């Protein structure tokens, strides 16, 4: 398998001006929207269902299934696009905002028409200054050309799109915390049920989809759902953008067909290009900071990028699409501490296990890394983690409203599985052996 450009096609064809309307129109933008507006909404939903498209934001939930949860005949209803990408080392949605905003706008219009929504919102991470500017400019261009606004392309369908800028809180990537923030309150997750599809933004039925998910819709309508669904492997259909970072020779965003292996992603010359200085892979994080880790073992490197396979076989997830690679010079304890520190900092404080537990985890890991650890510290960490995520297994079980708390537990479980000897070495020698 390997690289396959579908939603990054325009970026390759027009690298110098892909974000402009002229470049977008020259490469087929809004043709899928024209086709969609002549179709019954049910037929669009059927195409998306046939494609097997699953959410690209982390959970991997079926897109058509999610749309199907909207109650019939209840209006108004809203579409909210989650562009609050804050997972460490995840940077694909930022790229799509900055370099192909018209593809996203076209996808928003198609999705809105398909679900019967006339008001859409894009919640953009506050730090994405360039992406915000280009998206808002693209919206102005789209309005002037009749792709957004009243009576789109003479179809009788009206759509308004509002771009809302967040303030850089990682918790607002969780869909209900995002809705709270969008309504003007502090971003904190809501207890569910009710789920957003039933009672979301302004207590009305709401679909929340990720940037990459929505950006895929024009390609699905252009190709046809069945043809798109033939790409990929098993129930992980199509392509996906992976943010590859760490100790690879060519870090960056790569769109590959699902079913490509981690080894191919890391080592193919047109993808990761191999490990820096040709060192061995010690471990990698396959699905963003929230995921448990895998190692440089052949069975891990040769695993396919298949959402269900990696979860069922190894208890990890593809999550946000971020693959962080570490060679044999990396300290596993230090990586775990830095990840835990991030989650402790970003905890909203609503749930006691997360508010208190992530801070305790960070302090104990820091103690071990500094050489002041105790031999019982890893077991202590696992005990604390079990109170946040009972059973310490993926997919997450949790005593918290959202998965942020359990995300801080993933590094602990990974240390226990693969690097307990390394933790013991820190304690025994009273220092980090990698400094």
Q: Can you put this structure into words, describing what you see?
A:
It is a single chain. The chain has 435 residues and is α/β, with parallel strands linked by helices. The protein folds into 3 domains: 9-229, NADH-ubiquinone oxidoreductase 51kDa subunit (Rossmann fold, 3-Layer(aba) Sandwich); 232-327, Ubiquitin-like (UB roll); 332-429, de novo design (two linked rop proteins) (Up-down Bundle). Helices cover 43% and strands 12% of the residues. It contains 20 helices and 11 strands. The strands form 3 sheets. Strands 8-7-11-9-10 form a 5-stranded mixed beta sheet, with no helix packed on it. Strand 9 (281-285) and strand 10 (294-295) form a beta hairpin. The longest helix has 19 residues, at 352-370. The protein is globular. The two termini are 39 Å apart. 52% of the residues are buried. The model has no long low-confidence stretch (mean pLDDT 96).
Molecular shape:
globular
CATH architecture of the largest domain: 3-Layer(aba) Sandwich
Which superfamily, in CATH terms, is the homologous superfamily of the largest domain? Answer: NADH-ubiquinone oxidoreductase 51kDa subunit
Helical element count?
Answer: 20
Rg of Cα set: 22 Å
- The structure class reads alpha/beta
Tally of discrete structural domains: 3
Q: What helical percentage do the residues reach?
A: 40-55%
Number of strands: 11
- Terminal CA distance reads 39 Å
Portion in strands = 5-15%
Under CATH, the topology of the largest domain can be stated as Rossmann fold
- pLDDT under 50 segments (min length 5)? none
* Text of the CATH class of the largest domain: Alpha Beta
For the biggest sheet, the summary is: 5 strands, mixed
Strand order of the largest sheet: 8-7-11-9-10
Q: If you average the pLDDT, what whole number results?
A: 96
């Amino acid at each position: 398998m390997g690289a396959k450009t579908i939603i990054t096609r325009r970026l390759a064809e027009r690298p110098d001006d892909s974000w402009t309307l002229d470049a977008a129109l020259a490469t087929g933008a809004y043709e899928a929207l024209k086709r969609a507006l002549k179709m019954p909404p049910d037929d669009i939903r059927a195409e998306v269902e046939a494609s097997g498209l699953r959410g690209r934001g982390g959970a991997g939930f079926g897109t058509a299934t999610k749309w199907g949860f909207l109650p019939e005949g209840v209006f108004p209803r809203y579409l909210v696009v989650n562009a609050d990408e804050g997972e460490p080392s995840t940077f694909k949605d930022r790229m799509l905002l900055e370099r192909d905003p018209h593809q996203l706008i076209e996808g928003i219009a198609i999705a809105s028409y398909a679900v019967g929504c006339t008001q859409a919102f894009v919640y953009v991470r506050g730090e994405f200054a360039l992406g915000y500017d280009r998206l808002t400019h693209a919206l102005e261009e789209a309005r002037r050309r009749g792709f957004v606004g009243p009576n789109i392309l003479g179809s009788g369908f009206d759509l308004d799109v509002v771009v809302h800028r967040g303030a850089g809180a990682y918790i607002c990537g969780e869909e209900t915390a995002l809705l709270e923030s969008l309504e003007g309150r502090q971003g904190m997750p809501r207890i569910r049920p009710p789920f957003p599809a039933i009672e979301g933004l302004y207590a009305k039925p709401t679909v929340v989809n990720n940037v990459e998910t929505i950006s895929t819709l024009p390609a699905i309508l252009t190709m046809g759902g069945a043809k798109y669904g033939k790409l990929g492997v098993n129930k992980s259909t199509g392509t996906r953008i992976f943010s590859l970072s760490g100790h690879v020779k060519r870090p960056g965003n790569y769109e590959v067909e699902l079913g490509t292996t981690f080894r191919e992603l890391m080592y193919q010359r047109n993808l990761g290009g191999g490990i820096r200085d040709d060192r061995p892979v010690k471990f990698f994080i396959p699905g963003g900071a929230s995921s448990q880790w895998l190692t440089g073992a052949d069975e891990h490197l040769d695993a396919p990028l298949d959402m269900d396979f990696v979860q069922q076989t190894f208890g990890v997830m593809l999550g946000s699409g971020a693959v962080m690679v570490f060679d044999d010079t990396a300290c596993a304890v230090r990586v775990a501490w830095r990840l835990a520190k991030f989650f402790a900092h970003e905890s909203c404080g609503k749930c006691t296990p997360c508010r208190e537990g992530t801070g305790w985890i960070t302090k104990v890991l820091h103690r071990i890394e500094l050489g002041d650890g105790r031999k019982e510290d890893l077991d202590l960490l696992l005990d604390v983690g079990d109170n946040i995520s009972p059973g310490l297994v993926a997919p997450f079980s949790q005593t918290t409203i959202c998965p942020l708390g359990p995300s801080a537990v993933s590094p602990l479980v990974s240390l226990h599985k693969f690097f307990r000897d390394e933790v013991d070495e820190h304690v025994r020698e009273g220092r980090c052996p990698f400094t």
